[in-house]
Design a protein that fits this description.
This protein has about 500 residues and is α/β, with parallel strands linked by helices. It contains 14 helices and 15 strands. It has a domain at about 25-370: Alkaline Phosphatase, subunit A (3-Layer(aba) Sandwich).
Length: about 500
């Protein structure tokens, strides 16, 4: 009898021990989308796009309504995310290093920076590898030619390219992991299937999957079998781009496939799911209303992103928070979750979210801090007729931005102009309070300058000899006149519109 009881207890211990070990090292599924806007999911308010699988995961976790990317376009946002550092530390400021936009319209010489994340920078993937995790990146990479030296064991689709290789349908050329895609298979579906296979192959050990889907980056290319569905659907007031809708459903269907695989393998309870986007939505195809701006602007629509965390047994389901967080916070978060050490002699600019996720209470390290952005370059305007940006020629000119509490300050280096907004009262950044509240503007401006000095952020000051003030004036007038004649419509597939800024 004693032997039988002992055997039973031993068996129970063997059953429980892996769960205890797993609880200490949760699997991490990080779904990181491209050009996916703040309101591009149903749970965030889209009235046309359909995302039932993402909605379910969001309900099962905590939704963050004030989550930010570290940059308004792809490459710098990803470099910040992987390094845990703001842009002045790694110097990836833009997509490419050359000047953007018409030379006659740029008043300053931009800071070119670099296009490649330095290999001496330890990413969170390195730290997780050292902690015993199997790591994979699938989809867009964009910060070097090859992600493997940056801490990843597996690469599917990752190159220096900013978009899907030769479009969303095969052939994709000689891209790692995408040479043998079945004819007619949408690349979002391919990546989702490869993700499910990776999870199954590594079900016995902790893993981290950086599922950085190309979607919904241009080209805006429909998933053909879904197009008729959305063409026959009643357009929404906010969204009605049918091609974009099929791309978003493809993402959601892929997430559903992966969730089904987690459930089949019994891994759901030990897998933390993070959902995020690299920058705001593509202006001509989607809308982040009531936020102002879109990809490429440092208004809220360009940098505020959808974000949720589902971590069974840790994060209380069905919760929501307006505590501001930013992309660099994920590096220390992943390290703490995995029991991994932080890198030596490498500063990290973020704060671990683990204490907040566990307790549901945000400490002063989150609530009292400032968030920063630095963009010493130019990004030309979309070819649209209504502009949610400072002027019709550029989505962004050289600038720095700070948010602290409810307040947000922009500083534009060409003119030194400041823009101050209270986001609690004016989420759409319509009322510049810099002149009516000079005390708050001065306080935030001083903090922004102090941060730049501390982090050694380069500020462009050298005049551009090719600048032509008259040419700039005429170009702006032409754009505004065209917008007036266009009746206020901002772009393709749009419903609700805003007036020109």
């Amino acid at each position: 009898m004693i032997s039988a009881r002992f055997a039973l207890l031993a068996g129970l211990v063997l059953l429980v021990m892996p769960n205890l070990q797993s609880a200490e090292k949760p699997n991490i599924l990080f779904i990181f989308l491209d050009d996916f806007g703040w309101k591009d999911t149903s749970y965030m308010g889209s009235d046309f796009y359909e995302t039932p699988h993402l909605d379910r995961l969001a309900r099962e976790g905590k939704i963050f309504t004030n989550a930010y990317s570290c940059a308004a376009n792809c490459a710098p946002a990803r470099a910040c995310l992987l390094s845990g550092q703001y842009t002045p530390r790694h110097e990836v400021y833009n997509v490419g290093t050359g000047p953007r936009g018409n030379d006659k319209h740029r008043r300053l010489k931009h800071i070119s920076g670099t296009t490649t994340l330095r290999t001496d920078i330890q990413t969170w993937a390195h730290r997780l590898q050292d902690a015993g995790y199997k790591t994979a990146t699938m989809g867009k990479w964009h910060v070097s030619n090859d992600p493997i030296p940056y801490g990843f064991d597996v690469n599917v689709g990752g190159t220096h390219s900013g978009g899907p290789p030769k479009g969303y349908y095969p052939p994709h050329g000689n891209v790692p992991g995408l040479q043998d895609v079945p004819k007619g298979e949408f690349v979002t579906t391919t990546l989702s299937k490869r993700a499910a296979s990776f999870i199954e192959e590594n079900r016995e050990n902790p893993w981290c999957l950086y599922l950085t889907m190309f979607a919904v980056h241009t080209p805006i290319q429909a998933k053909k079998d879904l197009l008729r569905k959305y063409e026959s659907k009643t357009p929404g007031e906010l969204h009605n781009n049918t091609k974009m809708a099929t791309m978003i459903q493809a993402v959601d269907d892929g997430v559903g496939l992966i969730v089904e695989k987690l459930e089949e393998l019994g891994l759901s309870d030990n897998t933390a799911v993070f959902f995020f986007s690299d920058n705001g939505g593509y202006g001509p195809a989607t809308d982040m209303d009531p936020l102002k701006g879109y990809k490429g602007t440092y208004y809220e629509g360009g940098i505020r992103e959808p974000f949720f965390v589902k971590w069974p047994g840790v994060v209380e389901p069905g919760t929501k928070t307006d505590v501001p967080i930013i992309g660099v916070d994920l590096y220390p978060t992943f390290c703490e979750m995995a029991g991994a050490s932080f890198p030596e002699n490498q500063p990290l600019d973020g704060v671990s979210l683990v204490p907040f996720l566990k307790s549901g209470k945000a400490g002063p390290e989150l609530t009292d801090r400032a968030l920063f952005w630095h963009f010493p370059a130019y990004l030309q305007s979309y070819n649209v007729d209504v502009f949610e940006q400072r002027d019709p020629l550029f989505r962004s000119r050289p600038c720095s931005v700070i948010r602290q509490g409810d307040w947000k300050l922009h500083e534009y280096f060409e003119s030194g102009e400041l823009e101050l907004y209270n986001l609690k009262e004016d989420i759409g950044e319509t009322k510049n309070l810099a002149k009516s509240n000079p005390e708050k503007a001065g306080e935030l401006h001083a903090a922004l300058r102090e941060w730049r000095a501390e982090i050694k952020a380069p500020v462009p000051t050298e005049p551009n000899p090719a600048f032509d003030a008259e040419a700039e004036k005429q170009a702006i007038e032409q754009k505004l006149n065209k917008a007036g004649k266009g009746g206020g419509k901002k772009g393709k597939g749009k419903g609700k519109q805003k007036k020109a800024a």
